[in-house]
Every structure is written in structure tokens, then in C-alpha cells.
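Course assignment 3, question 2. Fill in each field.
Student: A.L.
Task: Predict the tertiary structure for the chain below.
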Amino acid sequence: MVNQFVSGNMSFGDRVVSRIMKGTESQTWLGGRLALKGEGNYAGSTEAVGYHHNGCLRFRYPMNNGKFHGVCRCWAGNEQLIVEEFYEHGKLHGVSKEWYDSGAIKKQSMHLKGEPCSEREWHENGQAASESVFVKGKLSGTRRAWYRDGQPQSEYGYRDGLPVWGKQWYFGGQIACEENFREGRLYGAQRGWYQNGVVKHECRYLDGMPDGVQRTWFPDAQLQAEYHYREGRRHGLCQDWDERGELIKRKYFLRDTLIPKRLERLILSDSLNAKVILSIKNAAVRRVCLESFGYARLLSQVEHKIVDRDGEQELVKLRWHPREEILCLVKVKCPSTGAFYTLRVPPGMKTVKAAVAWTFDVNSDEYDPIQET
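Answer field:
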């Protein structure tokens, strides 16, 4: 509880007025009243002692070689014991307890040489507030929490300290949300509800980012919004409605870039071509349209220079726009399907082998096409 006091990074809720040395004893004063005393820089202290403004004992922590060691206690200003914990050479060990100023139990935890094993919390009325289990110091199993009247508030499943799934409830018992995780990040279907039971939102996540269609509703179940995402970015049609069901906003995005209406119509009707892309003045819009259009289709509609050939595979370059970097593309054949696909590579590439090796993040002399998978 009082590591910050002994480390010198002291915080007593007031400004430190003075700190003096009396022989080997160090004293820290707040507003003219002793708040902390110990020997020297605490490295050889036998205990750390702190006081409240009213002069009552605030904490007493025995020490050994500059580290907490033994039964350590804290008291409220009314002399009520509020913390009792055991340290072994600076690490929490055994049962630790905390109380409210009223004397009601607040928290109880178990540690083994500094690692938490279990933890329980209570509301001041004595009702359980939460319970957690730890394995090798990390949250494991189901962590539960309750409201003051005993109704469930939340449940989260953990593995190796990371959440796997979770549920939350409103006060009254209505489900509020359901969440799923993978490696500690939101993953898969996520749902939320209003307190009246109507679905509030539905969405899917991929590695902590929204991916796919995300919908939200008003409390009367009227659709409020529908957005399309890809890898955490708005990608596709995004629409909003008012409570009467009238469309109030409609926008189209590619990789979070707003696309003008004219281009949106061409994209949705599959009428976008290289000539149109080259005429786009906005650089951000031009680039995302090119990526959406595809490099292979661009090569089929624009003159380009073949830099190198290796069988059916080609390395090509083209100056596709006066304000853009030269495009360097490698056309490769998938050994398993026989399909061709085109990848962008750095403009300094001179051979097909070097370009393909770069896509595998290896040097050209290390790349062996026979080992492709």
C-alpha cells in the first residue's frame, strides 16, 4: 500500500513543506505535522511510519534491508484499521485484507511471493462485489462482479491473463453486451442491448478492429446506422437514419477515404477504368481507387515497360501519373492454383527473382522457388 512513500515518490494528498535530517533519521513534514519518518534514505530502516494531519497513526510498515518485511498495517483518520498485509522481503505473501472506514470488509487477496493467487471484493453492505482467480500471477477462469443487491454485473473469462469472452448486465438483470476476444483483443461477433431488451448494436471484429458490417439501432428497434469496415477502416457504404427512418447521411469510403459521388457510381457499377483513375486530382482518392481497381487490370489498360522476364513471370514498371512514384509490379504465377496475380514491389527492383524474394521478405540469393508453399 505504501511503496510510493518509501521510494521517495511520496504522495500524501498535500504538498511536502519540508524534509529534514536529525542525525541518521529522516523526517518529512506536511503542513507542520510529521507525516513520515525513517532512518536515512530508508535502506537501513527498520520501519516506515506515517501520520494523518490529526496526529493519528496512518501506516506502520516494518522493513528489512530497505524492503517491506512482516505484517504491515494502515489506519484511517478515525483509527480504524483499513489495511493489513504481509510482506516477505519486499513481496506480498499470504493473506491481505482491506476494510472500509466503517470497519466493513472491502477486499481480501492471497499472494505467493509477490504473485496474486485470488482476490475477493465486497460492497460496504457486505454483499460480494467481485471475485477473481489467478494462475501463476495471471487472471484465469471466470471473473465475476455483482451489484450492491447481489445481481450479476459482469462475467469475463480469462486465460493466461487475457480476456476470452465477456458479458455485462444492467442493474435489473437485462443483458447489456456480449463480447468475444482472441489473444486479448476483440474478435468475432459483438452484441449490445438497451435496457428494454432491444438490440443496440451488432458488429464483428478482427484482431481488435471492426471488420464487416456494423449496425446500430434506436431504442424502438429502428435502424440508426449501417457502416462497412475492413481492417478497422470504413470501407464501402456508410449510412445513417433518423428516428423516423429517413436517410440523413450516405457516404462511400475506400480504406477510410471519402469517395466522391461520381466515382462511387462508377465503382458500384464496375465501370471504373484506368483513364478515369489517372484523371483524379485528389492524390488520396486516386491511390485508393487504384488499389481497389487492381494492378493487374491497370496493366491491361496502360502502356508499361517490361524490365525482366522469368518464364511466365514478369517485372514491369510504369509511370502512371506525373505526381506519383513510378509503379514497379511483379506478375507471378501461383504454383498451386496456376492463377496469376500482381504485386507492388519497391521501384529499385531489377529482376523478377529479386522482386518475388522481396515479397517473401528474403534476399534474392536465399530465395528458392522450389520451396514455395
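Instructor remarks: Helices lie at 3-6, 261-268, 274-279, 283-293, 295-301, 352-359. Confidence is low (pLDDT under 50) at residues 1-24.
Grade: pending
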